[in-house]
Amino acid sequence: MEKNIVLISLFSASIAALGLAPKVMIASGVPITAQSMGIMLCGTVLGAKRGALAVLLFLALCALGLPLLSGGRGGLGIFVSPSAGFVIGFPLAAYVAGWLTTRLKMINVFYSSLVGAITGGIFVLYIPGIIGMSITLGKSISEVTLIALIYLPGDCIKAILCAALTQTLFKLRPTNVLSRV
Amino acid sequence: MLALRFPKPTALDNVPATIKLLILAFATSGIFFIETLGTMFLIFLAIAMFHFLLGWQIFKFSVKLLKPLLPFIAIMVFWHLYSKNLTGGLLIIMRLLLIVSLANLVTCSTKTSEIADIIDKILGPMRFLNINTQAISLSVIIFIRFTPIMLERHHILSLAYKCRSGRRPSWQIILPLILSIMDDADHVAQSLKSRSTFRV
To answer: Is the pTM value of this prediction over 0.80?
Structure first.
């Protein structure tokens, strides 16, 4: 029990630390940062429930006003900005990434976490993200989807990195990769 | 170190957090019903004036907080220039700026502890549903205690990478960072267990 709580809290803190990694800004305004890879990692390493809880804790503390999102953003403003849909979709993305990594135990960790990261961190995350952008920017879903597609190459690279990291962590600290224990 | 606050105290700091949050909820919902550019512009002007009345420093700080919205504004301007509907674009841009600046106003004038108290009250009834609220409080404490440590560790790892390679670090420092987190988790969990801090 203690270890679960500590891992959830520390992985949550690591999402904040990963937001500091150098970011790339793209045309539609949402920065490409390692923070979204932190979300995928929470799922693929901690598993569905714990991963989603770590992300929920992170978001709750952002809402409290801590400037933890990339670029020092925080507060209630993030839930009404154009990235709001992506932010709200983060826990769901971590849950699906973790669920798939656990369910696909029969295959290699790299491939199971790659499937988890791509499905959770891209497909599942993009649905609320696109809806959120559509509402805040007043554009149709198809128009916003075109804008959101710009992130796809970056997110694919992040999913591959996330899978490679999960596999290495599984080799080095197998008992701490709770999605596979 | 972590809180997002105005550079100096304002009159808004004395307004109870519950009232500020309720006003924010109503204002945010109300702004979505405004369809005329004139009305939106008047409200926009009033909110800008309100920030200005709080002080020049506050005004500047609030404008700085809106900077992440600039790329969105640029894309909206180009989009609406292309579709020849600049009025519609201006309405969306002002709505976005208003909502985000109002939310920032509440966040920056409210102590983290005040919002934490509200969350605690919201979590209260969960105890009756047999949900362990002590675990939630403990998680928040560990998070707040360890986030500055993680940030410092990220900085140290970045410096070490720069020294070795002469290049800016990117994904290369993520693995050592996560490994150190896992080692910390083992130590902290052991420490909590041995001190019987956490009771199930």
So the answer is: no
